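Q: Could you fold this chain for me?
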Amino acid sequence: RMTAAFFKGVGQLPVDRSGARGAGEAAVKSGIDVIERGELFGIYPEGTRSPDGRLYRGKPGGLARVALATGAPVIPVAMIDTEKIQPPGKVMPKLMRPGIRIGKPLDFSRYNGMEHDRFVLRAVTDEVMYEIMKLSGQEYVDIYATAAKRQIADAAKAEKQALKEAEQAQKEAAKAAEAETEEGRAGT
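A: Sure. Below is the predicted structure, expressed as structure tokens.
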């Protein structure tokens, strides 16, 4: 509740991240409304935090659609060291400032009227992500951050299972060795 109040107080638009039908459309409409009122609008094109500090593929919906629908220039902004401020899995952030690098405005007027073309949306998003990569110096990974998070979670789960199985095998081997020793004693 306190977090929600903070974000509302600083003007953050609520975004339904459940994947429900129409959720993304509402967020895009809100972004367009903000721009049309002459206000600034910021969006994180990856759609989520990076799980490891690398830059992941941008999602082609929100940023590109708002930019093309409004004709507003896109100013790429790179945030540096955010993974050090609140590493994945940590609840409390460290008190430190992230680095911020601001790029030159990008003009996408060459795509006027094409805001529903998925190839154009992908091209706009990729161009913005490329500029963010140049500004940040981050390694770019051409998969979505949500997929990377799933891969990391699956790998951690598999590692945990392998450790559990190795521990079980070790216990069984110790038990077998103990039984063998007991048999040896009983035979003498």
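A (continued): DSSP finds six helices and four strands in the chain.
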